[in-house]
């Protein structure tokens, strides 16, 4: 294979109560990457489309470039040459795991291009390296679900222990992205380092309840558990109309609503597609009443993760 194009899905990290430990993938949006084998060793970002020139083109500063490079070093294939074209198909700084999707698409694509020397799960640390560059922390709650698909729990970071959780077949996600930007580094910086015992107990109850609710499945339990008493109260100040948008989602039948990743996107879960559509319209309307335009995405939980869109043998 000489050329491959891969799509990797956007993700909702944290999922209310699970800061840095929960995340799930959605069908859209997502990022696309095309890798073309080159006789000249090294990884080159030859083009990035859809970022308005804002992302670094140097391989060592680009999330996909870093992920591919660290993978090649790990498998001792620094002799490999590859040209990279990245198509950003989701907003930057949106809380949808944009940097993660690029890193995952990159590392998945290079592994396929080389005939899959590593199983998919082993690609995770290289995608996390991309996150370290983009956000200042190698958190896995975007890269793991983008890479593995489904709803993922990061049980532990050291050692890395990732568990995929079954979710109800008819669980739908609404994401509304207001046209404002929040930088993940900033959104992490404002968090408090200490948490009270009282809030820890509440949060642990919700973490356990959400997993039990998803696996049973029990929509009432899912709904009661989609509560974040630690991160949301701090970060919601970065999102204008947060309370109104959340209330609009809940009043229109959402099981729960919170910040997607580090924001400013907000997500809601619903038990059917129609409710998820209504919820999206109501959330957008709530943003609009403060003159904030937005995009809405409705999707099931994406269980597939990255997918190969095209591959080609070039006849030399
Ligand atoms: N868990 C990370 C955070 C996700 O909330 O900072 C960033 O998308």
TrEMBL record:
<protein>
    <recommendedName>
        <fullName>Homoserine kinase</fullName>
        <ecNumber>2.7.1.39</ecNumber>
    </recommendedName>
</protein>
<dbReference type="GO" id="GO:0005737">
    <property type="term" value="C:cytoplasm"/>
</dbReference>
<dbReference type="InterPro" id="IPR036554">
    <property type="entry name" value="GHMP_kinase_C_sf"/>
</dbReference>
<dbReference type="Pfam" id="PF00288">
    <property type="entry name" value="GHMP_kinases_N"/>
</dbReference>
<dbReference type="InterPro" id="IPR014721">
    <property type="entry name" value="Ribsml_uS5_D2-typ_fold_subgr"/>
</dbReference>
<keyword id="KW-0418">Kinase</keyword>
<dbReference type="GO" id="GO:0004413">
    <property type="term" value="F:homoserine kinase activity"/>
</dbReference>
<dbReference type="InterPro" id="IPR006204">
    <property type="entry name" value="GHMP_kinase_N_dom"/>
</dbReference>
<feature type="domain" description="GHMP kinase C-terminal">
    <location>
        <begin position="216"/>
        <end position="287"/>
    </location>
</feature>
<dbReference type="GO" id="GO:0005524">
    <property type="term" value="F:ATP binding"/>
</dbReference>
<comment type="function">
    <text>Catalyzes the ATP-dependent phosphorylation of L-homoserine to L-homoserine phosphate.</text>
</comment>
<dbReference type="InterPro" id="IPR006203">
    <property type="entry name" value="GHMP_knse_ATP-bd_CS"/>
</dbReference>
<dbReference type="Pfam" id="PF08544">
    <property type="entry name" value="GHMP_kinases_C"/>
</dbReference>
<keyword id="KW-0547">Nucleotide-binding</keyword>
<feature type="domain" description="GHMP kinase N-terminal">
    <location>
        <begin position="67"/>
        <end position="150"/>
    </location>
</feature>
<keyword id="KW-0067">ATP-binding</keyword>
<dbReference type="InterPro" id="IPR020568">
    <property type="entry name" value="Ribosomal_Su5_D2-typ_SF"/>
</dbReference>
<keyword id="KW-0963">Cytoplasm</keyword>
<comment type="similarity">
    <text>Belongs to the GHMP kinase family. Homoserine kinase subfamily.</text>
</comment>
<dbReference type="GO" id="GO:0009088">
    <property type="term" value="P:threonine biosynthetic process"/>
</dbReference>
<comment type="pathway">
    <text>Amino-acid biosynthesis; L-threonine biosynthesis; L-threonine from L-aspartate: step 4/5.</text>
</comment>
<keyword id="KW-0028">Amino-acid biosynthesis</keyword>
<dbReference type="InterPro" id="IPR013750">
    <property type="entry name" value="GHMP_kinase_C_dom"/>
</dbReference>
<feature type="binding site">
    <location>
        <begin position="91"/>
        <end position="101"/>
    </location>
    <ligand>
        <name>ATP</name>
    </ligand>
</feature>
<keyword id="KW-0808">Transferase</keyword>
<keyword id="KW-0791">Threonine biosynthesis</keyword>
<dbReference type="InterPro" id="IPR000870">
    <property type="entry name" value="Homoserine_kinase"/>
</dbReference>
């Amino acid at each position: 294979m000489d050329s491959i194009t891969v799509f990797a899905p956007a993700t909702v990290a944290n999922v209310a109560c699970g800061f840095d430990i929960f995340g799930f993938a959605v069908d859209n949006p997502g990022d696309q990457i095309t890798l073309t084998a080159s006789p000249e060793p090294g990884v080159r970002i030859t083009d990035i489309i859809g970022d308005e020139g804002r992302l670094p083109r140097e391989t060592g500063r680009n999330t996909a470039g870093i992920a591919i490079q660290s993978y090649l070093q790990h498998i001792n294939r620094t002799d490999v040459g590859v040209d990279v074209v990245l198509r950003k198909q989701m907003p930057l700084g949106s809380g949808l795991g944009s940097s993660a999707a690029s890193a995952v698409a990159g590392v998945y694509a290079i592994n396929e291009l080389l005939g899959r020397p590593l199983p998919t799960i082993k690609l995770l640390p290289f995608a996390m390296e991309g996150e370290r560059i983009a956000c200042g922390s190698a958190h896995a709650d975007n890269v793991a679900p983008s890479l593995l698909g489904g709803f993922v729990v990061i049980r532990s970071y050291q050692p890395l222990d990732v568990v995929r959780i079954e979710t109800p077949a008819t669980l739908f996600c609404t994401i509304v992205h207001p046209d404002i930007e929040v930088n993940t580094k900033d959104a992490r910086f404002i968090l408090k380092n200490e948490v009270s015992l009282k809030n820890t107990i509440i949060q642990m109850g919700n973490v356990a309840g959400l997993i039990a609710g998803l696996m049973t499945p029990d929509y009432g339990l899912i709904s009661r558990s989609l509560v974040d008493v630690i991160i949301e109260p701090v970060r919601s100040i970065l999102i204008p109309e947060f309370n109104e948008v959340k209330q609009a989602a809940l009043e229109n039948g959402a099981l729960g609503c919170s910040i997607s990743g580090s924001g400013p996107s907000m997500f809601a879960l619903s038990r059917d597609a129609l409710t998820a559509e209504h919820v999206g319209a109501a959330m957008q309307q709530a943003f609009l009443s403060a003159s904030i335009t937005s995009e809405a995405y409705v999707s099931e939980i994406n269980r597939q993760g990255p997918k190969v869109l095209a591959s080609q043998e070039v006849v030399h």
